[in-house]
User: Which sequence fits this backbone?
């Protein structure tokens, strides 16, 4: 009877070790699409659109990037009962290279700011800016404690406007040879 109990205990321990060894570890952050509502802790994010820019401003006062300016327009709402700071963001390309957002908002239209505080039931809205090479990115966002993360897939588009087309003027009908 004693050996049966030892075998049963050994099987239970072995089963526990097998199950514990098969766990996948921490879950990978989920990837969302532009326009989706993303709840991370007390912050609710919504990314609205992206825009590529070659400079901010014009003339001698123009701010020119090392690569290209990449703007991400978003909202970060506070669903909690206390003020929260919206953490900094990064973009990650398909090679795994990451770039942090610009901390200098000089010339950035509707810049969200470097220190973003959201009061309860209020939202911080505007653009975060990056100086990055043009390619496909995912925006990495986190909760207010920076413990939970998610990605937002940012398709590579240059938001090119539709070129103006000249409308051809109506041609005159040829006059039949017999009527000339």
Assistant:
């Amino acid at each position: 009877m004693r050996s049966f109990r030892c075998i049963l205990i050994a099987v239970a321990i072995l089963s526990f070790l097998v199950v514990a060894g098969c766990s996948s570890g921490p879950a990978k952050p989920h990837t969302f699409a532009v326009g989706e509502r993303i709840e991370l802790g007390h912050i609710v994010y919504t990314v609205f659109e992206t825009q590529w820019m070659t400079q901010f401003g014009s003339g001698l006062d123009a701010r020119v990037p090392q690569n290209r300016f990449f703007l991400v327009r978003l909202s970060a709402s506070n669903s909690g009962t206390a003020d929260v700071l919206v953490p900094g963001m990064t973009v990650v390309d398909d090679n795994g290279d990451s770039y942090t957002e610009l901390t200098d908002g000089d010339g950035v239209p509707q810049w969200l700011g470097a220190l973003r505080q959201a009061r309860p039931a209020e939202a911080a809205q505007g653009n975060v800016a990056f100086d990055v090479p043009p390619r496909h990115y995912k925006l990495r966002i986190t909760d207010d404690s920076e413990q939970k993360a998610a990605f937002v897939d940012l398709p590579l588009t240059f938001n090119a406007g539709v070129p103006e087309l000249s409308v051809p003027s109506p041609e005159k009908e040829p006059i039949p040879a017999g009527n000339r």
